[in-house]
Amino acid sequence: MTSSNRSEDLKKRDLDAVWHPCTQMKDHKHLPMVPIKSAKGVWLEDFNGNRYLDAISSWWVNLFGHANETISSAIKEQLDTMEHVLLAGFSHETVINLSEQLIEITPEPLRKCFYADNGSSAVEVALKMSFHYWKNIGKTKKTKFINLSNSYHGETIGALSLGDVALYKEVYEPLLLDVITVPSPDSFNREIGESEADYAKRMFVHMEKALEQHHEEVCAVIVEPLVQCAGYMRMYAPEYLTLLREACDRYGVHLIADEIAVGFGRTGTMFGCEQANISPDFMCLSKGLTGGYLPLSVVLTTNNVYDAFYDDYENLTAFLHSHSYTGNPLGCAAALATLKIFNTEDVIANNQILSAEFVKQCERFQSHPHIGDVRQTGMITAIEIVKDKASKKSYPWQERRGLEVYKFGLKNNALLRPLGDVIYFMPPYVITPEEIKMLVDVAELGIELAVAK
Ligand SMILES: *Cc1c(COP(=O)(O)O)cnc(C)c1O
């Protein structure tokens, strides 16, 4: 079979047997399905020899490129020693090393690591732990959570409840927990001339009011520090988090930082919380945790929380939550290798050079009549296509203009998978300045096509 026949065969078999995530499968009547043969660094290669620059890190997970030597060999080494062992009653050196290192690099009061196997599960853990903590210390009225509008925390029922992106959530509304949603400090909506920090402070009034009114029934506030990634890459100023930490302390409410997408250098610091100089009561990590290799997630929390569960068994205060693959050694080995790269290379400083290149390349969009916003936080750059620049009014969503950019990208060596009409770059940190220019060039031509549609 020639390579090209092989590809056609795979596409057909795929559509016969596989139901893809976050996809209207009927779209594939006209959209190509792309079987990938191999991947190296920032590049994916299909069976016809076409290459695609992975501008979105394969859904925000990849940090140091595909087929990374350091991570691959760490997994192989672990594989030859032990693939998996249960983490109840048993332990292994890889999970112990990883936990120590995570405690070392996260803000000071975070001292215990609880593992799960994907981001949504980590959010479920944090949600249950927070509720259970308050119950264990006798605050049984606390059963609710506060979130921000336009937030995203995953797809399982609890995590979906804590999010607020209508596209994913609305249909399941009858199944979901009741949450208190506070307007997001999203800088996109600030007044002309208003600084992002001033806007964040102004928007905090809503959070203050919600906490004042509901704190007795609220377990925790959950936020994505600095960037609401699935919420169209909307961004806000760190000042909001500083105010939030202070208010949560004042009202006796936990703060859950969902750093699943923004952790591990994405925002320009190792963790988004660092830019506000705060520490949450729970920090959820996944995605980049294993460098994009294996599903693994972790919730870090404080000794204060841990101690509220620590008692004689008969008192039934234990956190009886588990997942089959909790603390999987292969995932932990990938995570340790990822941290090793952060330790041996100056990743954060190098990323500043790459971020600056994105700024430089995206200057071309500033005066574009159909670009309403170009925003950047660290290694995330987003361009919002709008119908009208002055009012920032969007195109009707049914027109699916962003999809045109996606299709154009596929024909021009770039995997750009927009969120609605928001084109964004969230590449592996091993991208080069030349590759950044190439990506932005492709995006620009794709956008011209999309707005001319
Ligand atoms: C992706 C994501 C999740 C969910 O993680 P999954 O591994 O996809 O379940 C939760 N929160 C945020 C902020 C995310 O970006």
Could you please describe the fold and organization of this structure?
The protein is α/β, with parallel strands linked by helices and 453 residues long. The chain has 2 domains: 34-67 and 346-451, Aspartate Aminotransferase, domain 1 (Alpha-Beta Complex); 71-344, 3-Layer(aba) Sandwich (Aspartate Aminotransferase, domain 2). It is built from 14 helices and 16 strands. The strands form 4 sheets. Strands 4-12-11-10-7-5-6 form a 7-stranded mixed sheet, sandwiched between helices. Strand 13 (371-377) and strand 14 (380-385) form a beta hairpin. Helix 4 packs across helix 11 (329-344). The mean pLDDT is 97. The chain binds pyridoxal-5'-phosphate. Residues 118-120, 123, 152-154, 224, 229-230, 258, 260-261, 286 line the site of pyridoxal-5'-phosphate. The site of pyridoxal-5'-phosphate (PLP) has 14 residues, from helix 5.
Keywords:
453 residues; 4-stranded mixed β-sheet; alpha/beta; Aspartate Aminotransferase, domain 1; Aspartate Aminotransferase, domain 2; 16% strand; binds pyridoxal-5'-phosphate; globular
What is shown here, in short?
The protein is of the alpha/beta class. The chain is 38% helix and 16% strand. It is built from 14 helices and 16 strands.
CATH topology of the largest domain: the name is: Aspartate Aminotransferase, domain 2
CATH class of the largest domain: Alpha Beta
Strand order of the largest sheet: 4-12-11-10-7-5-6
The figure for the number of domains is: 2
Rounded to an integer in angstroms, the radius of gyration calculated over CA atoms is 22 Å
CATH A-level architecture of the largest domain: 3-Layer(aba) Sandwich
Query: How far apart, in Å, are the first and last alpha carbons?
Result: 39 Å
Number of DSSP E strands: 16
Structural class: alpha/beta
User: Helix content range of the residues, please?
Assistant: 25-40%
Beta-strand content: 15-25%
Tell me, rounded to a whole number, the average pLDDT.
97
